[in-house]
Amino acid sequence: MYACYYQITAISRYESRIINGKDVAPGEIPYQVSLQTKRSSHICGGSILNEYYVITAAHCVENKIPADLVIIADTVNLNRPGPQHAIKQIISHEKYDPHNSWLNDIALLKMFSPFRPSRNIGFVTLPEQDEAIQEGIMARVSGFGITKNGLRSKILQQATIYITSQEYCKDMYNKVLSDIYDTQICANDPNKRRGACKSDSGGPLIVNGKLVGIVSWAKGCALTEYPTVYTRVSLYIDWIEKNIV
């Protein structure tokens, strides 16, 4: 899986992606959605919050209007998509900054029609405001992004990774002149290239059944030394609750 953005610094290319994952079974991750253009082209992931809202990354909807996009839920196979959900409103964080490590990379998408819970459609569980996430704990990332063969996966993929030490993540990205903030959380597998890749942006990072991160950006693709950077959802619970009205 790869993120979709490039930063002009000492390192010219920043991506986030799902590599070396495995297929997701129908109903296994019922809150995962595909954010697509009207031409049925997948661009990012997202998670269903409740009947009317999806949560994703702000960079996935930057410079876009609701009419540009649709949400596809109720599927793990993009060759067999579920019904399209039209987007009524895009709510990006007011302090989103793509020029500063994609700070506050979070957005809400309001639907015209509700999601109806079923075997293949469900709502993601949020952490508490400011809930701490243990370093080294196992996490799961999922998405329809680029796989190791360089092609987007039509089958939803998932990979097991681990929450990285915040200090380690800050130290590594300091080497390439990028900042890591407390509103971000990092994760990877330090022993094997596994994790998010291009077009996985906006997708969920799950720990103990809770949405702790949103795929944002990274150096390279699922690298063992450079973790992928996620928006830390636990620091945005108040913002989410304020805006899902």
How would you portray this structure in words?
This protein is mostly beta strands. The protein folds into 2 domains: 29-123 and 238-243, Thrombin, subunit H (Beta Barrel), CATH 2.40.10; 125-234, Trypsin-like serine proteases (Thrombin, subunit H). The protein contains 2 helices and 15 strands. It has helices spanning 166-174, 237-243, and strands at residues 18-19, 22-23, 32-37, 42-48, 53-56, 69-72, 84-92, 107-111, 138-143, 157-163, 184-188, 195-196, 204-207, 210-217, 228-232. The strands form 3 sheets. A 6-stranded antiparallel beta barrel has the order 9-10-11-15-14-13. The chain has a 6-stranded antiparallel β-barrel with strand order 3-4-5-8-7-6. Strands 1-12 form a two-stranded antiparallel sheet. Strand 13 (204-207) and strand 14 form a beta hairpin. Residues 1-17 have low confidence and may be disordered.
Keywords:
Peptidase_S1_PA_chymotrypsin, 245 residues, Thrombin, subunit H, 6-stranded antiparallel barrel, chymotrypsin, 7% helix, 6-stranded antiparallel β-barrel, globular, single chain, 15 strands, mainly beta
Secondary structure layout plus pairing:
Blueprint: E1 18-19, E2 22-23, E3 32-37, E4 42-48, E5 53-56, E6 69-72, E7 84-92, E8 107-111, E9 138-143, E10 157-163, H1 166-174, E11 184-188, E12 195-196, E13 204-207, E14 210-217, E15 228-232, H2 237-243
Antiparallel strand pairs: 1-12, 2-10, 3-4, 3-6, 4-5, 5-8, 6-7, 7-8, 9-10, 9-13, 10-11, 11-15, 13-14, 14-15
